[in-house]
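Posting for a labmate who doesn't have an account.
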Amino acid sequence: MPLRGFGTVNFELMLLRRMHDHQPALVRAALKNLGKSATDLRAAHAQWQRGLRGGFPGGASRYRLALGRPAVVSSRLLPAVGELAIEAWPMPLWPGLQFQVTFGPGGDVVDERLARMPDGATPAIASVADLRPWLLVIDDLESTCSPVRYRMSAGTVASHAAAVFATPDGATCEAQFSWGLLQTAMAVDAGNQQAD
């Protein structure tokens, strides 16, 4: 099976493949830190894609096959949806973060992204200057800059997300995320934003 023994480092490489679209310099530094090459990154991504297309079990089984037993198992009840199961694995490349997968009542994946560990502190966000790549996750923005409006553009890959929000000092910003991790952010003219 292509995913058996995939492991955390290969999983991190797979995540880096999509981050390269936004932050090639940070990805190169991460590869050096891992002792891996761009070839290793492409191979891990291809292996993951083969696993996704290769008839492997869906839901939690896929991630357990690739990453082993989750470090965190919890649940959350949403009145309109039912009970959601949450499993997460630490990602050492991003200290304080974990890869969190949320499963619906039928076991289907409804969300998968990097998230802060439960005991992790959210970095302070006061202005655009605090929106530094690879420092913040989507939940950090939602807790400090709510409401956050998400946008999907044509051709956007599933692991990418764009968001529009206001920082506490009132600046309207647009940010790009990959796997839930902030990649880019900039202040924008609020008058040019289209209504959702």
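Reply:
Got it, the structure tokens are right above this. The chain has a mean pLDDT of 87.
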